[in-house]
Amino acid sequence: MDTTISIRRWKGPWTRRKTVEAATIGVTLLAAFWVFTATNHRTKLSLQLQGSNACPFPAIFNFGDSNSDTGCVSAVFGRLSPPNGRSFFGKPSGRYSDGRLIIDFMAEKLGLPYLNAYLDSVESNFRHGANFAASGSTIKPVPSMNPIHLSIQLSQFEQLKERTIELYNQAKRSYAQSSLPRPEDFSKALYTMDTGQNDLHAGLTSMKEEQVRTSIPSIIDHFASVVEKLYHQGARAFWIHNTGPIGCLPYFVVNYPPKPGNADQIGCVKSYNEVAQEFNKQLKDRMSQIRTKFQDALLIYVDIYSAKNSLISEAKEHGFVDPLGYCCGHHGDCWERTIVNGTEVNRDSCINPSEYISWDKIHYTEAANNWVSRRIMNGSLSDPQIPITEACHHSR
């Protein structure tokens, strides 16, 4: 809308002095008007951004294990077999699930494409981020687990960033612009982390519970060191999941059933969940310390344990059957093949995965991942309580 401000020209024997005064007043009024208009516009814009559901993170860089692996292990150690991926992708997609993972729903919420695994060389595009998560990986190196542990994932990220900047500086812009993040995106991206479950898994299956508890501080130290290194690489917005109720995974309930007095009301291994809770307590405390140390960064600690525990406790209320049941792998691993009447076929899976929380004793179904995603992304289980769609407005 056009705005016109008229300045009246005074007449009379003292016109020159009054004309200068009038002009001065007019200029002052005009300047004040535009300052008011600009300030009002910025205020409205700020309010619009704060209320927007489209937080403009240009990229996501994810670190973790099979809970968020979108194709790393499948690319490195052999493609996953059906029935993985059947519910959404219609074929194996590198995910240990019948469909999407929590990281996929997070990307959807932020208006970004699904993350390609960094180690997947076929048709991968990292323009809007990369996924370094590897199934079976741990925070600290564990000989019996995947060697692509968290420090290796950090090294992969550092290489991606370094080579991306080199390509931009070498003016190889056609490939860089279409397939790689912009150099400035590394400081504006969201850094997501979901790991630690396998550190506890490895410990609980190889040592006494008290020994696992004793190992937790060292695991947290290692995790914190990676967060700090990412900060020094320019990361400023972190979305960090704690670990879930490991004692409720059908894998443990079936293979390491609770002893008398060590089962909760659902049938989960109570002491295993207490180990996970101790891990989460120490993780939250350390993230609080880092938050104080790096006050220009946003570290959001997400209590995914509570979300998953609520789902398991109230499974039937949310349309799921037996909370400790599982869809796939009743006669072996879900992704393995077996011989039936002389013919090699895939292992069996249930008719309707959406009725189950667990896909294969360890990993969640797409339906369960979707439920948990919606529960955590609104910020109600976060510290600080910031929805994922507003996290960019709070990072500096």
Describe this structure in words.
This protein is α/β, with parallel strands linked by helices and 396 residues long. It has one domain: Rossmann fold. 43% of the residues lie in helices and 8% in strands. A 6-stranded mixed beta sheet has the order 2-1-3-4-5-8. It has a two-stranded antiparallel sheet with strand order 6-7. A hairpin with a 2-residue loop joins strand 6 and strand 7. The radius of gyration is 27 Å and the shape is globular. The two termini are 34 Å apart. The N terminus is likely disordered.
Helical fraction equals 40-55%
- Largest sheet, order of strands side by side? 2-1-3-4-5-8
Which sequence of SSEs, written as H and E, runs from N to C? HEHHEHHHEHHEHHEHEEHEH
User: What gap, in angstroms, lies between the N and C termini?
Assistant: 34 Å
Using the 3D structure, state the CATH architecture. 3-Layer(aba) Sandwich
Q: Give the number of DSSP strands.
A: 8
Helix/strand class = alpha/beta
Mean pLDDT: 86
In the CATH hierarchy, the third-tier topology is known as: Rossmann fold
- Beta-strand portion reads 5-15%
CATH class: Alpha Beta
**Over the alpha carbons, how many angstroms does the gyration radius reach?**
27 Å
Number of separate helices = 13
Shape: globular
Largest sheet: 6 strands, mixed
**Poorly predicted ranges (pLDDT <50, ≥5 residues)?**
1-53
CATH superfamily: SGNH hydrolase
